[in-house]
Automatic annotation (TrEMBL), chains A, B:
Protein name: Amine oxidase
Keywords on record: FAD, Flavoprotein, Membrane, Mitochondrion, Mitochondrion outer membrane, Oxidoreductase, Transmembrane, Transmembrane helix
Residues at which FAD binds: S16, V245, E421
Cofactor (UniProt): FAD
All residue ranges annotated as the Amine oxidase domain in the record: 15-445
InterPro entries for this protein: Amino_oxidase, FAD/NAD-bd_sf, Flavin_amine_oxidase, Flavin_MAO
Stretches that traverse the bilayer: 6-24, 188-207
Pfam families to which the protein is assigned, alphabetical: Amino_oxidase
Mode of membrane association: Single-pass type IV membrane protein
Gene Ontology CC: mitochondrial outer membrane
Length: 507, 507
């Protein structure tokens, strides 16, 4: 039991929570900030692990790995932390397999897959329609998007059924849905899909590894470093690992501000959150993704003129939806791939060996028999990761954004919401995590120390409707109570933190 | 801290959990059964409260209230508990208001609303189509429903948009969705809707108060009695109120069986549930419903020839979607109504007085100025009810049933699943709660005491694929550990129960 007193408690030591803590620390060194994290590590949905490789061992990202030059928030952070990036290798032939297990495997060089004239026409008209709709999306207030209710009442699947003509394109859009969101097109609101694409600057930005797109660069040494460096700056003594917040209670006579950067429905709130916020929290399912890295002695695919990029539709018997070259900056050859959505659900019920064999068989089929001679196969099923429950992002089912989205970023009493799901730029990405964490930090500063904000920042907060009113200047009296740490006989550690706060008024 | 040892721990003292406990107790009096309930009362989403009425005070149901003659499980329980039922009053004129706030309010006598010939034709063709689809639904294994993936990939809204021709019918289907599920047609998988209707015997059975339908009878004295009587039979000393289960840990060397009759995503499981089950648990949002009772000195609506039934579409400015006569068995006049779905979300943000005035204005408009002279207005917002979070039922968004439904009733290790969401008959209703609780109890008996099952019951369990294999006959050694009860300074009581079980094998 600690009797410490804190000004801000950040729930979740992922990129968003730590970005919030970091900005708060930078702006007001006197603020007493505590970051609570359920896992025994920082980084949330980013984790970098060492595995056997050609020259011994090397490090790969088993969670979020890519950044892009238009992702300004993460790019600034990378610069600030003095980390290095390198481009995703994408030169050479790409492989496309859709249309059933026995259909022809196609090979192409352009960024747009080798499509028949009809499918290409279909792709072009659909992309045009979707991008036109993307441009109408008002991310800040989705209800101002023309026809928002109708767009939010259908699944991505329904839109594609109505607007794509060819089965092949429909199957490829399934691959897009799985590789970007970890869910099937049937599980997502079409408006959510549009918002996500709009927040990235368009649909192609989500899918491509070309300049400005989501898969442009990787970070030398891995993305988990971002969180580790941030934790260093915040001060490791202020970051408590193995400390899962299970309840947040707001009481009178406290001004403590929690920043919740953990998109979980498992936290109990007292008093209960407003219905709108609670329904939203309970209705943002996370995707299901398994990521694998296979290391090799030589990058045989490059030698054969392949880029390492494979796209495989769900009608094939291939477990993964997409792979890329993952050769490390040190030159250790590797491929990275994803088993995702319904395929993750199906394949996660099988034995690890069976799954690995199926992945390798597919790699052999698409890239040649050399794929069988791998050094090491390592996979991570994010659904099994405690306090994540899935990857890469929490999505929204139909009928949520238009009814509940106004509460997505709106503080509840003194609780502020971070997490990439609440981002307005590159929502769902690492960059969105940083942006949302910084935005939440500014909201907190507006409450506890508004002189730390620039005039522009204050203006932006008001415009973003993320502050509740004029900044309060009551003396800071804070109390964190009931924080207990228990280690139990079975290998599980839980911490229940009750944050007791002041003068709750839901607005 | 208790060191008691139990054979079965039931999570949730609603109708389902208590039905499970009751059947277990009846079949094997030696079983040590503990029922844990977070609320300070039994009954779950049923609660009966006294409010001022014409002759003083009287009791009304503020949660589930109706039963029907085809709901065999609840009807048998009512008989077994020696409770009395009485029919829902439905004689006289009904009111229908759709098509915008200024449109004509229509009055009709039949069970099918006063529709124009075109809308009637539209209604007939849609009902025919939906009922034909209902008949193809395989409730036991939804994947065997023809075209299951496609039906599950669209929302009810998308189906209606594609298959109904008239705006008026579409609006009425919105009322159906809100009044039956507490959600909008956009928030629900069309396959889920079909399954729900099929489990009730057809779409009209959900909507009607005629014989065999969902709104046929009420229970004298209220529905909460069902749970109270069951708790009595199970033994109140075995029912612990104010005891919310926050975690279920399964460990070696214990044979304790938990029966989870609480459809919440807030329980932490150790080891983690299989991905399929966890995704399902995290993806069954509950509806949002506010129920109100208005008591009167006289049943003025009956005197004027009205039944008390009003249907109001969301295009009107009426907050409620539907009302019925709620005159008590003792003759105290009352009306009952529901504010539901998006309307509940909107109206719950307003002051109670404003909401009450809007309800009464609408009643005045539809039934006459006498509606203004009420004795008492009482409402219950189920979204504010702790450990329920909403009402009447947890629904499924698109893309869940076909991917995850196989795990809906499948035990996880020794954990068995009850709750009306898991029912195969009258899913979502009180009858489904009883049926699912009894089914879970039979599953437990098959494990711990299979001689207590009849041959038919064993056969049914195997057919229902709800048992994992041949019943185990290992000696019963059980352990419930770490059950702590804490009362804290602020008016909140939480209990964390860690259930430690044996030889976990997810199958």
């Amino acid at each position: 039991m600690t009797a410490d007193i804190w000004d801000v408690v950040v729930v979740g030591a992922g990129l968003s929570g730590l970005s919030a803590a970091h900005l708060l620390r930078k702006r007001d060194a006197k603020l007493r900030i505590l970051v609570l994290e359920g896992k025994d590590r920082v980084g949330g949905r980013t984790v970098s692990l060492e595995i056997p490789a050609a020259d011994g061992v090397d490090r790969w990202d088993f969670g979020g790995q890519w950044v892009g030059s238009t992702q300004t928030h993460i790019m600034e952070l990378i610069k600030d932390l003095d980390l290095e990036i390198y481009p995703q290798f994408n030169a050479g032939k790409k492989v496309l397999h859709v249309g059933g297990p026995t259909s022809k495997v196609r090979v192409y060089q352009t960024s747009i897959p080798a499509l028949s004239p009809l499918v290409f026409l279909d792709f072009t008209q659909l992309l045009w329609k979707v991008d036109r709709l993307c441009k109408t999306v008002c991310i800040q207030d989705l209800l101002r998007t023309p026809n928002a209710a109708e767009l939010d009442s259908m699944t991505l699947h329904s839109y594609v059924e109505q607007n794509a003509w060819t089965g092949e394109l429909k199957e490829q859009l399934g691959v897009c849905s799985r590789s970007v969101f970890g869910v099937e097109p049937s599980q997502m609101s079409f408006l959510f899909f549009l918002m996500y694409a709009a927040a990235a600057g368009g649909l192609m930005a989500l899918l491509e590894s070309t300049p400005g797109c989501a898969q442009e660069f990787k970070i030398k040494g891995g993305t988990q470093q971002l969180s580790e460096c941030l934790a260093q700056r915040v001060g490791w003594k202020n970051v408590r690992l193995g400390s899962a917040v299970t309840a947040i209670w707001q009481v009178e006579y406290s001004n403590l501000c929690p920043v919740v950067a953990y998109p979980s429905a498992k936290i109990q709130y007292q008093p209960a959150l407003p219905s709108m916020r609670e329904f939203l929290t309970q209705n943002m399912p996370v995707g299901h993704m398994m990521k694998f890295i296979v290391t090799y002695q030589t990058a045989f695919w490059k030698e054969k003129g392949f880029s390492g990029e494979i796209v495989a539709g769900s009608s094939t018997d291939c477990p993964f939806c997409v792979t890329f070259d993952a050769t490390s900056p040190r030159g250790n050859p590797a491929l990275v791939g994803f088993i995702s959505g319904q395929q993750a659900t199906l394949w996660s019920t099988k034995e690890a060996g069976e799954r690995r064999n199926a992945v390798l068989s597919s790699l052999e089929r698409y890239l040649g028999p050399e794929a069988a001679s791998f050094i090491h196969y390592e996979e991570k099923d994010w659904a099994q990761e405690e306090y994540s429950g899935g990857c890469p992002v929490n999505v929204m089912a139909p009928g949520l954004l238009t009814y509940y989205q106004p509460s997505l970023r709106k503080p509840c009493g003194r609780i502020h919401w971070a997490g990439t799901e609440t981002a307005m730029q590159w929502c769902g990405y690492m960059s969105g995590a940083v942006q949302s964490g910084q935005r939440a930090a500014l909201e907190v500063l507006a409450e506890v120390c508004h002189v730390a904000l620039t005039a522009e920042e204050q203006e932006a907060l008001v415009q973003g409707q993320t502050v509740k009113g004029p900044p309060q200047q009551t003396p800071l009296s804070r109390l964190l109570n009931g924080l207990t740490r228990k280690s139990v006989a079975i290998p599980v550690l839980t911490i229940s933190a009750a944050l007791l706060l002041a003068q709750v008024k839901w607005q």
